[in-house]
Amino acid sequence: MVYFKWIYPFDSFALTIIFLVICAQSDVPRPRGVSLSKAPLYSPTKDFTCFDGTVTIPFSYVNDDYCDCFDGSDEPGTPACLNGIFHCSNAGHRAVNIPSSRVNDGVCDCCDGTDEYVQPGTCRNTCQELGQEARAEALRLAELLREGSTLRQELIEKGNKKRKEMADQLENLEKDKAEAEKMKSEKEALKDELETKENEVLKVYREAEEKERQKRAEEESEATRKEATEHFNRYDSDRNGQLTIDEIRVRNVFDKDKDGEVTEEEVKHFIDDAESVNLDYFIEHVWPLLKPFLMMEQGMFRPPAHDDAEEPEHEMDEEPDLDADNPSEDDTDDPQEDLPHEDDHVETETHQVYDPATQQLVDAASEARSQLTDAERHVREIESNIKNIRENLEKDYGSQQEFATLEGQCFEYEDKEYTYRLCMFQKVTQKSKNGGAEVGLGNWGEWVENEDNKYGAMKYTNGMGCWNGPNRMTTVNIQCGLETKILSVTEPFRCEYKMELITPAACDDSKPQHPAHDEL
Ligand code: MAN
């Protein structure tokens, strides 16, 4: 495994010197379980004062297997106090502190075996071996850090270069934007000007169209009137200008249900309660009701079939197939209901033909509109680029821009069930190997300090909602390594993911050394 965390470079000479000094210091007389740094607090010639200052006892009470101090400081070398601390010097390896309750419990906690002194021989001293391994590991890690920090330096240079390029790009884009906006205003002005002209010339056409429409409407109304009058005269057999109930009853066309008889109800349908109607009433009220039946008779209008299977075969001259048994208001065979209405919107594609001069103006205006649309799109594109660059420039890519080149780079990790993908400073996703959609495990949020390192972990938050739970989120712990790579992905809590990432960007050899232990 090639990663490293908070280990600082030691060369073998320095390690040897430190080791010799420790061996010399390990001989300093002190009560059992006391570290070198605490030794001065235990003077055999003075009474002992507990570390918390509450009690002072004769020195002979120290390590007498009776707990006198609340903080357990009088019994570092016995298990008498529950909260005491036993210090293993572990000469040759790393000193450690263990709870003094583990002293003489039959388990070897210290590599030098000093925690199990009542039964000598219980523990073998393994400190030399372990120390040797640890020193070899420290050297390996120191070497890793040395190599990694060279790579990090390169990343820093590239990162700064990238940032500078982005700043230059932003400056250029701001200029482009000013120009594009100027262009847009010009195109807008040109479009307004040409549209004004276009409207002026089209006004003549629109007026002519309106006149034409009115004319057509009048002609249609006149034709309707004429046709209705002809029918009125045909039915008004005594030619007295009044169509009576008797005159209606003998006309088959008013026999809505085609049962061979024009009933009272059928008459009422056309003329309400009137005894007779004159021509004007006929044209306005009766004709619109009668016309669809006439059209059906002439085969000019067919109501839509409601059930294809049962649709009767219509002959051109066939009578309208009306439901004679039940002519209710809901009768869907009523041709009146199926006629196109005046306010029905009928899409018709008309291509207006203009005179050449007008056409030229219409074309110019339409070209100006399209150019304005292009100019507006261009401004929007530049604005979006500016926004992206600004967002990136505002991101924290590390104290020396060491993480900048990683922006947008994606790394994958596969376990048995899922493929995880981390796109640096953007998002984390999870895809099941059994198919299904990608699940968002979080979007770039912020750096999180980890073991005194401001850039120790990244937080990706606000991912896809978890079933009956919060939105998914991911913490990416970052350590030094010679390449950028995800080492593991876990889900310690449901929908909370943890990634271990190594990268040379984290190999910082300039950090102050952290003394992990008080001896060695
Ligand atoms: C999916 C995955 C899992 C997650 C569950 C929660 O199966 O995203 O990681 O634990 O949903 O329901």
Properties at a glance:
7 helices, disordered C terminus, 520 residues, alpha+beta, 9-stranded mixed β-sheet, binds alpha-D-mannopyranose
Description:
The protein has 520 residues and is α+β, with helices and mostly antiparallel strands. The protein is built from 7 helices and 15 strands. The chain has helices at residues 12-25, 127-235, 245-249, 264-271, 279-297, 335-338, 356-394, and strands at residues 3-4, 48-49, 56-57, 85-88, 96-99, 242-244, 276-278, 410-414, 418-423, 427-432, 439-450, 453-461, 473-481, 485-493, 496-503. The strands form 4 sheets. Strands 1, 8, 9, 10, 11, 12, 13, 14 and 15 form a 9-stranded mixed sheet that branches. Helix 2 packs across helix 5 and helix 2 runs antiparallel to helix 7. The longest helix is centred in the middle third of the chain and has 109 residues, at 127-235. The chain is elongated. Mean pLDDT is 86; it is low at 1-25, 307-333, 339-349 and 512-520. Alpha-D-mannopyranose (MAN) is lined by residues 430, 439, 466-467, 491, 494-495.
What topology does this entry show?
Layout: E1 3-4, H1 12-25, E2 48-49, E3 56-57, E4 85-88, E5 96-99, H2 127-235, E6 242-244, H3 245-249, H4 264-271, E7 276-278, H5 279-297, H6 335-338, H7 356-394, E8 410-414, E9 418-423, E10 427-432, E11 439-450, E12 453-461, E13 473-481, E14 485-493, E15 496-503
Parallel strand pairs: 13-15
Antiparallel strand pairs: 1-13, 2-3, 4-5, 6-7, 8-9, 9-10, 10-11, 11-12, 12-13, 14-15
Alpha-D-mannopyranose binds next to loops.
